[in-house]
From TrEMBL:
Protein origin, superkingdom: Bacteria
Keyword flag Hydrolase: yes
Residues of the Endolysin-like domain: 26-99, 103-144
InterPro entries referenced in this protein's UniProt entry, alphabetically: ELLD (IPR057370), Papain-like_cys_pep_sf (IPR038765), PGBD-like_sf (IPR036365)
Annotated GO MF terms: hydrolase activity
Protein name according to UniProt: Peptidoglycan hydrolase
Keyword Hydrolase included in the entry's annotation: yes
Keyword field: Hydrolase
Naturally occurring in which organism (per UniProt): Bifidobacterium favimelis
Length: 262
């Protein structure tokens, strides 16, 4: 059975305790004075630590082989745990050692993918501080479930766009959450029909919330909930595009907001 601590120790050994170079031409020549690349080193150390790596041969098939054998694919949230495999499925892989450090094979002595055997520069394989490479995921060994996301309090799906609905909409869009759609044009029954907003102020200066919505939908950002904006919202929500912000549109909005998104 695999041991994460052994994985950490073997990665540290190969990256600092011996002269192991980087070259994709002979990437499996893992010995003092030999060569590896980022994925062959991680796969080699996994096997040394007793893990079954299946048919894994490079970054592109590492995740599928390990997740079939007790590893979990987790979001790269900037908080890795010791023993996590830091993976970009296309380009790179490293192992997080803990204490803010990772171990990796980086590049040859020429800064390219091929070089001579052994570590010519002292950092072809290396231990360094964790950095925000565009990791696609962390692979973590163990069967503990992923902690559930905190439950989002539900708003009532009643078709009335009152303060609770507006406040949630503002929270989702990242604007001030005061529960009021402010600065709207006074409805004239033609250009601006009265929308189904139970929490609204008029004055024509526009709303931060509506500007954020318009930006999300690729519209001109005047902050006004006019017919064009309403139709775009309806298209986004998948309801009839009649330009009227009525109960059917509001119910679709409320259902979306209860999922924590717009």
């Amino acid at each position: 059975m695999g041991n994460v601590n052994v994985l950490i120790n073997r990665m540290r050994y190969w990256c600092t305790g011996t002269s192991l170079g980087y070259s994709q031409a002979d990437r499996w020549d893992i010995r003092p004075g030999g060569n590896c690349d980022c994925s062959s080193l991680v796969i080699h150390c996994l096997r040394e630590a007793g893990f079954d790596t299946g048919s894994a041969t490079y970054t592109g098939n590492l995740s599928s082989n390990l997740t079939a054998r007790g590893w979990r694919r987790l979001p790269a949230d900037g908080r890795p745990q010791a023993g996590d495999i830091l993976l970009n499925d296309r380009c790179h892989v490293a192992v997080f050692l803990g204490g803010g450090l990772l171990a990796q094979a980086s590049a040859s002595e020429h800064g390219t993918i091929n070089g001579t055997g052994g570590d010519q520069t002292g950092h072809e394989t290396n231990v360094r501080g964790y950095y925000s490479y565009p990791w696609d995921c962390y692979l973590r060994y163990g069967s503990a479930p992923v902690p559930p996301k905190p439950a989002v309090p539900q708003i009532e799906v009643d078709g009335s766009c009152g303060p609770a609905t507006v406040r949630r909409w503002q929270q989702v869009m990242g604007t001030q959450a005061d529960g009021v759609v402010s600065g709207q044009v006074e409805p004239d029954g033609r250009t601006y029909a009265r929308p189904s907003l139970a929490s609204c102020t008029y004055g024509g200066y526009g709303s931060q919330l509506i500007r954020a919505v318009q930006a999300r939908l690729g519209l001109a950002r005047d902050g006004l909930l006019g017919p064009a904006t309403i139709r775009a919202i309806q298209a986004h929500l998948g309801v009839v595009q009649d330009g009227s912000f009525g109960p059917a549109t509001v119910r679709a909005l409320q259902a979306r907001l209860n999922q924590g998104t717009f």
